[in-house]
Design a protein that fits this description.
Length: 414
């Protein structure tokens, strides 16, 4: 078995060397000072790394990589006047390292090798995208988002603290990243499809991540450009449709019998949200073709994302305080309180209690509807705070209509 694993690793190493080397071979010129590394050099370097790891483990692999690195440095000194870039040299060192990795983890090595070949082959497209497609502001936003997601989020403490132990810094940081990502998705969709279809599509997709955050992001975008108000409202409304779909899936996974009992109310709520979004989608037809950078604005605003997280944190503290003062007043109080932050958690907990036989089906339906209602209150507050009165007055009627039909559906079809 060990010999077979080693043979597979050697084959993967050779495949990586040939794949990356073939791409580099096509980049070599035909002059006397052409690049020293081609398909044969890359294949040999990958096999050298693999054989070095087989014979001497990590220690010998490190020596082999250093030798290959020294060779690439000598080659670079000879060709740097013609080509000052070091992509081929670094790719050769990485290929040698991947050859050694292929012995211990062939799948990981093959995946990294494929990504390396892809990056090398996409050279012209990447250069064109960064230099000609991306603006200076967009590049700044990408760097800011990466710093927030890869630096701030991992170091944020993942524990509850503050008044009533209601604040989790890691959860709030994750929410900030989500808001930034949703806003950026809307921006990309607008540039790609225009406002008429881009924002509604982005709103629906982002609703599966967080409908509340989507309503906030759409509100900020609408506040910055009144001409895209209808499209932003359509995206916000369709995010509520995503909420209903996701809630139905959650209930079905926990207790399918409960979903059957709630099928009509949830279907009515989903249809209402879809129709309301479609109404504003039609109204946004006159905004078709608005794709310029001036009309799309920035990908996101960090200050508004932080402000949204602080607002939701305040709602969580108030909810926790209410729960603490009232004590354990039962399932309904808990459902109402948790619904301010997340309607899906309320649905999952009620479905779990019903599945465990602790409550009847009627007792499970009411907390779910109550949590959905209080979550709608949070969405209304967010709509006013993010997009102003003009935006909120178009969002809130749709939210109210959705809640009314879900309650009426539960009343008449229970």
């Amino acid at each position: 078995m060990e010999s077979r694993s080693t043979l597979i690793g050697l084959c993967v190493a050779l495949g990586i060397g040939l794949l990356v080397g073939a791409e580099r071979e096509r980049r070599k010129d035909t002059t006397a000072d052409r690049s020293a590394a081609g398909i044969r050099t890359f294949a040999v370097a990958a096999l050298l790394g693999a054989v070095g790891f087989v014979i001497g483990g990590v220690a010998l692999l490190a020596i082999v990589v250093l030798v290959v690195g020294a060779g690439t440095l000598v080659a670079y000194q000879r060709t740097r006047d013609q080509d000052p870039g070091m992509t081929t040299e670094f790719a050769l060192v990485l290929t040698c390292t991947l050859g050694g990795l292929a012995i211990s983890d062939a799948m990981l090595s093959a995946g990294i090798g494929a990504v390396l070949a892809l990056l090398l082959a996409a050279r012209n497209r990447l250069h064109h995208f960064v230099r000609s497609v991306l603006t200076e502001e967009e590049l700044h936003d990408i760097i800011l988002f990466s710093a927030t997601a890869l630096i701030v989020l991992p170091v944020a403490p993942d524990r509850f603290m503050g008044p009533f132990d209601a604040i989790n810094p890691h959860a709030l940081a994750r929410l900030i990243v989500i808001v930034m990502a949703i806003s950026a998705a809307g921006y990309v969709a607008m540039r790609w499809l225009g406002t008429q279809y881009g924002l509604p599509l982005a709103g629906f997709a982002s609703g599966f991540v967080s409908s509340t955050a989507t309503i906030h992001s759409m509100g900020r975008r609408a506040a910055g450009n009144k001409q895209i108000m209808a499209a932003a409202v359509a995206g916000a409304a369709l995010s509520s449709l995503a909420t209903i779909i996701q809630m139905s899936v959650v209930i079905a996974l926990v207790q399918p019998a409960l979903l059957i009992a709630m099928a009509i109310p949830l279907a009515l709520a989903g249809v209402t949200a879809a129709l309301y979004g479609a109404l504003f989608l039609i109204r946004s037809a006159k905004e078709r073709g608005q794709r310029s950078a001036g009309e799309t604005g920035r990908a996101f605003d960090l200050k508004t994302a932080v402000g949204f997280a602080l607002l939701l944190g305040l709602v969580l503290m108030l909810s926790a305080g209410l729960n603490a003062f009232l004590g354990n007043a039962g399932l309904l109080v808990g459902a109402a309180v948790s619904g301010f932050a997340d309607a899906h958690a309320t649905a999952a907990s009620a479905a779990s209690l019903f599945a465990a036989g602790k409550i009847a089906i009627d007792q499970a339906i009411f907390p779910i509807l109550l949590g959905l209602t209080t979550n709608t209150v949070t969405k209304a507050i967010v709509a006013f705070s993010s997009g102003g009165k003009a935006y909120a007055l178009q969002i809130v009627p749709g939210l109210i209509a959705m809640i009314l039909v879900v309650w009426l559906g539960a009343w008449f079809f229970r």
